[in-house]
């Protein structure tokens, strides 16, 4: 099987293997933590969840980070990335433990969201660093392969963590705090795993490292402008990022729809809703794995833009066909398809950005990449809140997502030919 062979090749690279271990532990903790928060907000018996409430929760957790994300990217290009993985994960472990205490003591919502926001902000910072570090442990010849397997393996780890969290939550209805503590323990392990790599291994280059916080902060505005200018000069990367933002927008809107369907339309009890949501998450994760298998082959034949166009085209056709019945089995099939095409497009986009952007700017550009992800996802949740009825069934939302996928497919195919 090609994907197994490719994985064996990459795992022979010691530093790639160590960076992958940090990713797997960190993202499995993300999966645990995110499910704990989602079930606490959406499935708690005392909460009457609406699309607007879900959108508000996403905005509180993600939008504030979108304001500081580019500034974090400048620091990412000046601080040693290994140290970011170490201290960032240790801090997330501490904050996660604090969130568990807030859940147990039933603290006010604004205090809970502030704690969760802090963990989420560090999470996006670390994911950008993982992507920026990958070219330091893999040669350019194997970069597409690494981008197929490494982020996808991380997504599968997050899915596995989510599955574990769902299992714990189903076993005990009041186990949100225990699930959060499990996530905190995994964050601690991720921080300790980063110590297996040399401090300077992941860059940036020594002459670019700016160890003093004041000096780094003072250079933030100039660095942000330089990063944007650098990206504007790399039209190939800018176009891929724009397409990926639209993929993310559609995925966010459909995620809110599935949450509402699981909560109200498809289940009569909390456990039934959680089970269906867990199946949707698991099938989407299986789609991510399928993307890792298919993408290297597809990119080799269609090119990066061609594969993104193909993914968007498949989504444009299959998403309405499967989603419009608003029935569990077709919608769960759609979760797999959308997981495959979204991750396939992301693998191609990651590779385009890494190959088009200079190492000195990668942290800033990948941080901007994450900001686009957050803004697109929250914007989609806001649109979904306006379009979705209480039970989650919305034909206009499904058709709008299909139209966006179609536009991306046609545009990327045109740019590929041009």
What's the number of helices? 14
Query: Sheet with the most strands?
Result: none
- Could you state the CATH homologous superfamily? MFS general substrate transporter like domains
CATH topology: Growth Hormone, Chain: A
Q: Quaternary state, please? A: single chain
CATH architecture, by name, is Up-down Bundle
Please compute the radius of gyration using only Cα atoms: 20 Å
User: How would you sum up the global shape?
Assistant: globular
Q: Mean pLDDT, rounded to whole units? A: 84
Kindly summarize this structure in a few lines.
This protein is an all-alpha fold and 418 residues long. The protein has helices spanning 2-11, 14-42, 51-76, 81-104, 109-133, 143-171, 176-193, 213-218, 220-233, 235-265, 270-323, 328-356, 359-387, 395-417.
């Amino acid at each position: 099987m090609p994907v197994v062979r490719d994985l064996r090749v990459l795992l022979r690279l010691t530093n790639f293997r160590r960076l992958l271990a940090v990713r797997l532990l960190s993202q499995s903790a993300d999966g645990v933590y995110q499910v704990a928060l989602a079930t606490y907000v959406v499935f708690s018996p005392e909460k009457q969840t609406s699309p607007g409430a879900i959108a508000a929760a996403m905005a509180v957790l993600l939008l504030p980070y979108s304001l500081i994300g580019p500034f974090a990217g400048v620091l990412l290009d000046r601080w040693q990335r290994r140290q970011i993985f170490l201290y960032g994960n240790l801090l997330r472990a501490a904050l996660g433990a604090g969130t568990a205490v807030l859940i147990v003591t039933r603290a006010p919502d604004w205090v809970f969201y502030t704690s969760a926001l802090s963990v989420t902000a560090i999470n996006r910072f670390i994911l950008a660093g993982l992507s920026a570090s990958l070219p330091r442990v893999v040669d350019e010849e194997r970069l597409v392969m690494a981008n197929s397997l490494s982020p996808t393996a991380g997504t599968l780890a997050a899915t596995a963590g989510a599955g574990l969290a769902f299992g714990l939550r189903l076993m005990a209805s009041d186990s949100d705090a225990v699930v959060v503590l499990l996530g905190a323990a995994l964050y601690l392990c991720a921080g300790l795993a980063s110590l297996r790599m040399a401090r300077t291994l992941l860059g940036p280059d020594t002459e670019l490292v700016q160890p003093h916080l004041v000096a780094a902060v003072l250079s933030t505005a100039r660095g942000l402008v330089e990063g944007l200018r650098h990206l504007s000069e790399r039209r190939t990367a800018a176009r891929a990022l724009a397409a990926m933002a639209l993929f993310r927008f559609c995925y966010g809107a459909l995620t809110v729809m599935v949450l509402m369907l699981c909560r109200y339309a498809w289940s009569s009890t909390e456990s039934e809703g959680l089970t269906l949501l867990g199946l949707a998450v698991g099938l989407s994760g299986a789609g991510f794995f399928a993307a890792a298998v298919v993408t290297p082959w597809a990119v080799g034949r269609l090119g990066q833009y061609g594969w993104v166009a193909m993914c968007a085209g498949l989504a444009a056709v299959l998403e309405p066909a499967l989603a419009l019945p608003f029935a569990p089995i077709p919608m769960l099939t759609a979760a797999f398809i959308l997981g495959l095409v979204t991750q396939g497009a992301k693998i191609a986009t990651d590779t385009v950005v890494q190959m088009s952007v200079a190492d000195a700017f990668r942290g800033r550009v990948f941080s901007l990449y994450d900001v686009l992800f957050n803004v697109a996802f929250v914007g989609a949740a806001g649109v979904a809140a306006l379009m979705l009825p209480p039970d989650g069934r919305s034909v206009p939302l499904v058709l709008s997502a299909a139209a966006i996928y179609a536009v991306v497919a046609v545009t990327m195919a045109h740019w590929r030919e041009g």
